[in-house]
Design goal:
By secondary structure, the chain is α/β, with parallel strands linked by helices. The chain has six helices and twelve strands. The strands form four sheets. Strands 1-12-11-10-6-7 form a six-stranded parallel sheet, sandwiched between helices. The chain is globular and about 40 Å long. The two termini are 17 Å apart.
């Protein structure tokens, strides 16, 4: 399944189609210049009617190591209106898919996932690297370019009654997100969507996660 760019100001209470796919009112299109604009409600909640999340994201060359162009989304967090609009968009998509639990991938997924859970009054569970969670855990191992890594979740946090959304800051090759999906599914939960702020489309992460739904705010 191809991923979809979101209109981050679109409804927190959108209509749901019988197929379970999101209403078209939630799906935004990029502007002619490639910038994805976020329409915010004309209420006191956000005073700025339009903002560009893409323009806030900064490119940092050679970080964390030479040859990597790092997408720094912290300026979005530093802009209260932008952060609110991002939370509004992601929580709207979680709602349209009928999610009842939010998972965030270590560690930037915690930053975006917890406000989504808060906005919808849903439980939040962290998906962490080994040795970070204090109680009994369920684990999944996944392959990296060189070697393997592991993700864990508290085994009692989710189960067969849960419809989860998995939140992270960025989708690249999709290896970590796929591992988080497999971890949730191993617990018996249904992954109804993967939600990210940034997607690097050339790396094929959305295709790797198919047939799960993938939504991103900004595509490169």
């Amino acid at each position: 399944m191809s991923s979809t760019a979101l209109d981050a100001g679109a409804g927190v209470t959108p209509p749901r189609r019988a197929s379970g796919t999101p209403s078209s009112s939630l799906l935004g299109a990029a502007a002619d210049d490639g910038t994805h604009h976020i329409e915010t409600p004309t209420t006191n909640r956000w005073r700025t009617p339009k903002m560009s999340i893409r323009k806030l994201i900064r490119d940092v060359p050679d970080f964390p190591k030479p040859g990597i162009l790092f997408k720094d989304f912290t300026p979005v967090l530093a802009d209260g209106e932008a952060f609110a609009a991002v939370t509004h968009a992601l929580s709207g998509m979680a709602r349209v898919h009928g999610a009842n639990h939010v998972l965030g991938i270590e560690s930037r997924g915690f930053i975006l996932g917890t406000p989504v859970a808060h906005a919808l009054a849903l439980p939040f569970s962290p998906v962490r690297k080994p040795g970070k969670l204090p109680r009994a855990v369920r684990s999944v191992e996944y392959e990296l370019e060189y070697g393997t890594d592991t993700l864990e979740i508290h085994s009692e946090d989710i189960g067969p009654d849960d419809r989860v959304v998995i939140v992270d800051d960025l989708l690249a090759t999709g290896g970590t997100a796929e591992a988080a999906c497999r971890l949730a599914e191993a617990c018996g939960a249904e992954v109804v969507a993967v939600l990210v702020m940034i997607e690097l489309t050339a790396l094929g992460g959305a295709a790797r996660l198919a047939p799960r739904h993938v939504y991103s705010l900004v595509k490169y």
